[in-house]
Amino acid sequence: MIEGVDASGKTTVCKTLSNRNEWKYLRTPTGIFREYNYKIEKLGDKPLAYIFFLSAILNTSYLIKKNLKYQKTIICDRYYPTLIAYYNAINYIQDYVNIKNLPLIKPNKIVHLYVSYHKIKERLAHKKSLSIDELKLIKNKFFYNRLVEEYRKECDIEIDATNLSVSEIVQKLHTILF
To answer: pLDDT category, 96, cuts 50, 70, 90?
Structure first.
């Protein structure tokens, strides 16, 4: 599983690993959850967004379990650590659901792709449209720092990908995972 802030390179790295190794690629949220993710985010209703993303995570867990019957290795672009990191970073209390006690498929390794604040801002500046969270990252370094801090708590391994190419990140991941 690969985690990190928006524009850290998760999707590109996951897709590259998936293609090179013929691994199953999953992304949270997926399917119908992906379609409605930005609509839910725009409503600004934190409890609704939390429950929505939690449902997306449960769906991803189901898909992981289903695909593990046929595929030995699955690479996942975001999963439950994202929900924990984002909601802890905004100090949203999650008392009513302890994610780690849910019957989720647990990953063997959770890798945090760290990219510096300056580089994240640079990457996001090239996007045509930005999500609410991406705008918050650009405008609020404190939010970025809190998010990185929370990802570090949830992930097993961190790779500083600030000045690495996709190939270099993939090589580091191969070294770590195998």
So the answer is: low
